[in-house]
Amino acid sequence: MTWPREPAPKPASAPRLRRLRRAELPRDSVALARFLLGAIVVSDVPPGRTALRVVETEAYLPDDAAAHSFRGETARNRSMFLRRGHAYVYFIYGNHFCLNVSSEAAGVGAAVLVRAGEPLIGFEVMRLRRPRAAERDLCRGPGRLAAALGIDRRLDGCDLTAAGPLWLAAPQRPPRAIGTSARIGLTKEAERPLRFYERGSPFASGPAARNG
DNA sequence: TCACTGATCGTCT
DNA sequence: GACGATCAGTGAG
Description:
CATH architecture: Roll
Largest sheet: 8 strands, antiparallel
């Protein structure tokens, strides 16, 4: 299977979306990181709905020195300790927000970082938010993805399995094949193979050669 | 297509 | 006061 050079044509009508139930989410962080590939993140933040199909995730585990939760609960990372299926949104590098899905039982600090996605719904709204980005780059990278969906600190702690401004929908197309690699941008525990991506996807972040 | 660099500021030590 | 789960812009190959 080869990928088209350009993104697939936009669907003529918006796809039907079914909200994921918490019971459907795997109880293990690594399993959830793989499960989320192909799943859909839906944002109903004004001015209109945007949604993307997840193509890249990273797992941050309990007792993981690279995880924000490693040193215990703080005001910033509190949402990592919510039971699985809640949004953990944090601000990074003075410029960007990143979206995570909490991934363990209540009181256990762990999350799955949603690193990249394939735009599905709301191209016009995404382009309003990221006017200079090429279509392929609209959601390629965690900061870009959050910007395209209008995600900021206000959505921190949001239940992604309940009705609200940000939620998860069931996959409509499973990932073709899942690749595994080291996580990106870390100085601690950098070698652990906890990054997962749809093989060959042009919407995954980083150099294309790494995503084959 | 990739590597490099500066910008930017909240959070924690 | 240092650092960071990043990005956009630039230039080289």
